[in-house]
Design a protein that fits this description.
alpha+beta; three-stranded antiparallel sheet; 2 domains; 366 residues; nine-stranded antiparallel sheet
């Protein structure tokens, strides 16, 4: 779905408010969505030097409508609920931090970020987080969009991981467990390392890393051929043993033929020849209207699982704060002749214009 069609549906909601949106809530709902759309149109008409400002406030006003529609108590919002304190000397904008502002909410109102996060079922933000970690965690900013330079040495900002379900064949035994192969993990990880790393991600069901031992437990693994000792067949499919040792993961293949480690969901069964997309969606849901299936990372010291809408909120709040209070840093980062960040930043701001209407519509109607 494109942004124009999403805004048309949002306009219909302004005229046909949800049944529970009445009285004062309805007045806020309608006015805030009108402001949000106008601010989004303003963001389309300005260049990247100013674009984070109307983009953030377009999202903030949409958040007021979401809170009016979804929150039971204290649905009116006040303040940002966030802070991005000045950090003189920090020239890489990705190293700037965003955190909760620590202020108590006004009487009868919720802090904006926390209130909208609660309305959409997202974690809030328990500890300060670098903007680079927020950027990296965003599913809307994966390739093929231009990518930011690698993080500084010693810094880990986790990215969403693409996963590929391995569907059982009709001639395989019934009751094959759901298996997916996972892209984006370090090749050096053994099964324990993979399990530990995936502990920082959101998966929809308990899982095990697929090894020869776990394959035997779920489906009587057997060698494919005495001439190919590294190939193992289970009811879930054919896998390659990644390396020697009892903790070696078994690897399947992505659509482009890349060899990737596999994980198995022992409590989720797929019928061979007729796999239920509902079961697959529970464990590894598709994102937006794209075919990608992703597992999203948790962010910050408390491993918060922040929804994509609220990740945009954090990112645009941080970028708009830099653009307002450190304009020379912001405009310098946009200089395509000297900054490796310029093209990825512009692409991300363009993507916000496309992604936000869809995410706002989902928040209003889910």
């Amino acid at each position: 779905m494109n942004a124009s069609a999403d805004w048309q549906r949002i306009r219909l909601l302004r005229a046909r408010q949800p049944a529970r949106v009445t009285g004062e809530r309805a007045a806020v709902f309608v006015a805030a969505l009108e402001q949000s759309e106008q601010l989004m149109r303003a963001a389309e008409s300005v260049g990247p030097a100013a674009r984070p400002l109307p983009l953030f406030y377009a999202l903030s006003q949409a958040g007021r409508a979401v809170a009016a529609a979804k929150l039971v108590g204290d649905w009116r919002l006040a303040g940002h609920g966030l802070a991005a304190p000045p950090q003189d000397g920090v020239q890489d904008l990705r190293r700037r931090i965003v955190k909760g502002d620590g202020r108590a909410p006004s009487a009868g109102r919720s802090r904006s970020f926390d209130g909208v996060a609660s309305a959409v079922g997202s974690d809030s933000l328990a500890a300060a987080v670098e903007l680079g970690a927020v950027w990296a965690a965003m599913p809307d900013l994966l390739d093929p969009l231009p990518q930011m330079p690698a993080p500084p040495p010693g810094v880990m900002w986790r990215r969403p991981l693409r996963v590929y379900p391995q569907y059982p064949k009709p001639d395989q035994p019934l009751g094959a467990k759901l298996v997916v192969v996972v892209g984006g993990l370090a090749e050096s990880l053994d099964a324990d390392g993979i399990a530990a790393e995936l502990g920082h991600y959101a998966l929809g069901a308990p899982f095990d890393v697929l090894t020869l031992e776990t394959a035997n437990l779920i489906g009587n693994a057997r060698p494919f051929s005495p001439f190919e000792p590294g190939v193992v067949v289970t009811p879930c499919g054919m896998f390659i043993i990644a390396s020697g040792g009892p903790k070696a993961p078994l690897c399947g293949f992505s659509p482009n033929g890349e060899k990737l480690p596999a994980i198995v969901f022992p409590n989720m069964l797929l019928m061979p020849g007729n796999p239920s997309p509902i079961i697959v969606d529970q464990a590894v849901p598709p994102y937006r209207d794209k075919s990608d299936r992703l597992i999203r990372p948790r962010i910050g010291a408390k491993d918060d699982l922040v929804s994509p809408l609220m990740l945009w909120w954090l990112l645009l709040f941080g970028l708009s704060t830099i653009a307002r209070y450190d304009p020379e840093l912001w405009v310098g980062a946009l200089d395509v002749n000297s900054s490796e960040q310029a093209v990825p930043i512009e692409a991300a701001l363009d993507e916000a214009l496309e992604a936000l209407p869809e995410l706002i519509l989902e928040a209003l109607t889910a």
